[in-house]
C-alpha cells in the first residue's frame, strides 16, 4: 500500500490546529483539520488511512470522550493527545484508555514529527495486515494464487476443496518452498471456517516456554490468548511441527483429546522435512501423528509438476518485468529445456527468485538463465540435471508448447511467420495450438 497516511488534527483553537497542520504538512504528511471532535468523528471510520492528533480540553465533547469514541470505531487507530502543561494525571488517563502517546504543551515540534512518524507507521502495518487477511480470507482469490495445470496441481486443488469442506485435523507435508503455507491459508479460506480466526504459529521460531504459553496458555498480560482458544471455530496452523519436543507433543495430544469430536479448533500441522530419510511419521509420536494425520495433503515438489514450471516462469517474469518497467526475457528452446530439467531444490520460492533475477539480467542485457540455475542449485543435494520420473512424452510436449508460445509471441500472432520459422504446415500448427490451448488472439 503506497497511499500517503493522513493526520486528522482536532483542536478548538484555530491558530493551534493550523500551526500543527502546517508543521506536519512541512514534514510531508497529508493533514486535515477539525474544530471539534463531533466533526472529526463524522470523517472517521474503521479503515481510516491515518492517525489522529487531538487536544484534550475542548468545549462540547472533550478529548477523553473523543478518544473513547475513536476506540469504538477502530481500537487500533493511533491517537496522539495534547495535554496542558503539567497535566500528568490527564496524560496517564489518556494512555490508560489507549492513546498512542501524548504531547505536553508547549510542545517540541520535532517530537511531534517523530511521534507522528511512528504512529503512521504503526497504522500502515495494521492496515496492510488487515488487507492481507481480507485477501487471504477470500477463498476464490487464494485458489487462483495456486498457479498450475499439471495433474499433480489439479489433484492438490481438489484435495484443498474436499478437505477444506470437511472437519478434522490436517497434516500438510512437502519440501521447502512448495507452497505449504499457502495451501494452509487456502484450506481455511474455502471452508465453513473462513470467517473465523486463522492463527499461524511457527513452532521452530519460539522457545519451548513461549510456545507452550502461546498454544495452551496461561498467557501473560501482554500476550494474546492461547491460540487453540483464540481460533475457536477456526484454524490453528502449526508450522514446522517436526520441531516440537516430546513434551510439547504430549501437551498437544492432550489438548487435541480434550477438544472432543468434532474439534472446535481445526489444527493444520505443517511438516517441513529436508532430510531424505526422515518422514513426519518418524519424528512425531505415533498417537499424535495418527490424530493430526486424519487427513493428509502432500504438496508436490516443483520437479514433479511438469510444464507448470514454464507456465509459472512465464507468468512470474511478466509480473517482475512490469514491476521493473522492462521487457520479460524471451525463453529460448534450450532454456525452456533447462528450466524443465532443473532439480529445483528450493521449489517455487527458488523459481520466483530465478524469474526475478532473469528479468533483471534481461534489463541489463547480460547473463543466461542457465547460469542462474547453476548458481542456485545445491549440487551436493541432487544431481544438477534430472529427468527424475518424468516420461519423455511430457518433456517433449512441454517443450513443444513453449516453443510455439514463444514464437507466436515474437511474431505477435502472425501465423504465417510462425509456420515459416518452425517449418510447420498450417494445419499442424492449428492442431498443436488447439492441443496446448494457445490462442492466436492472445498474441495480437
Ligand atoms: N502453486 C503456486 N502458484 C503460485 N505461487 C505459489 C504456488 N505455491 C506457492 N507459491 C508461492 O511460493 C512461495 C512459497 O510458498 P510457501 O511459503 O507457501 O511455501 P512453504 O512450503 O510454506 O515454504 P517453507 O517450507 O519455507 O515454509 C510463496 O510466495 C507462495 O505465494
Ligand atoms: Mg511455510
Topology:
Elements: E1 6-10, H1 14-26, E2 30-34, H2 37-43, E3 50-55, H3 63-73, E4 79-83, H4 88-97, E5 101-104, H5 109-137, H6 139-145, H7 151-165, E6 170-174, H8 180-189, E7 198-202, H9 208-216, H10 227-230, E8 235-239, H11 246-259, E9 266-271, H12 280-283, H13 286-292, E10 295-299, H14 308-324, H15 333-341, H16 347-364, H17 369-376, H18 392-410, H19 415-422, H20 426-435
Parallel strand pairs: 1-2, 1-3, 3-4, 4-5, 6-9, 6-10, 7-8, 8-9
Helix pairs in contact: 6-8, 7-8, 9-11, 14-16, 15-18, 16-17
The structure holds adenosine-5'-triphosphate (ATP) and magnesium ion.
Residues 180-181, 239 line the site of magnesium ion.
In short:
This protein is of the alpha/beta class and 444 residues long.
Description:
The protein is α/β, with parallel strands linked by helices and 444 residues long. The protein is built from 20 helices and 10 strands. It has helices at 14-26, 37-43, 63-73, 88-97, 109-137, 139-145, 151-165, 180-189, 208-216, 227-230, 246-259, 280-283, 286-292, 308-324, 333-341, 347-364, 369-376, 392-410, 415-422, 426-435; strands at residues 6-10, 30-34, 50-55, 79-83, 101-104, 170-174, 198-202, 235-239, 266-271, 295-299. The chain starts with 5 loop residues before the first strand and ends in a 9-residue tail after the last helix. Residues 180-181, 239 line the site of magnesium ion.
